[in-house]
Amino acid sequence: MTCRPAASLLRFGRDRSATLAVEFAMVLVPTLGLIGAIFETGIVYFKSQQLQVATLHASRAALTRSLGSMTYQNFVDKYVCTWQATGAVAPGTLGKSFDCSKLLVDIADVGDGTSWSSASTSNSFYLNPPSSSATITVPAAGHVAVVRIVYPLPAVTAVLTGGILKGLTLGKTTSGQVTYGNAWTHLLLGVAAFRVEPT
To answer: Does the model's pTM come out above 0.85?
Structure first.
């Protein structure tokens, strides 16, 4: 005996045995989205704070003019992220949750100290960052210097899905993110601006 489609729909509509499963499925999607958003926001704030602390500690080398003829990679290895070079996390440097090969660093001498107006603290230098093998130009004594360190942090959505959603918006907001390396990412910025100590 075959059932007519209309009768099947009526029987399905009257059946209440799976109501809880359907309601759970409807509520589960937005709940998981909310949990993911909370998780992602927490990671961004936590890592931003770590990066800012490491930037402030590392900038003391420029403040005291103790950089010598150091390259940007040497600066990262010695002052910003010691664990990739030595295996140990020094106090005030980034922890092992950071992939320090992705760090972008800029140390700029922006003037003679009479005006701070040219001291850019934007993250736009990531579009054309200094090469990691370039030698740092040590800011002159008494000049205003700006140290900026950028870390691209992939959106949690991409991390949790194994990269399936990497670079795709799929209706989610991309506010606070930029396109970097052909993917949407949070571009975390640590910055320190100061007048270099006299010699």
So the answer is: no
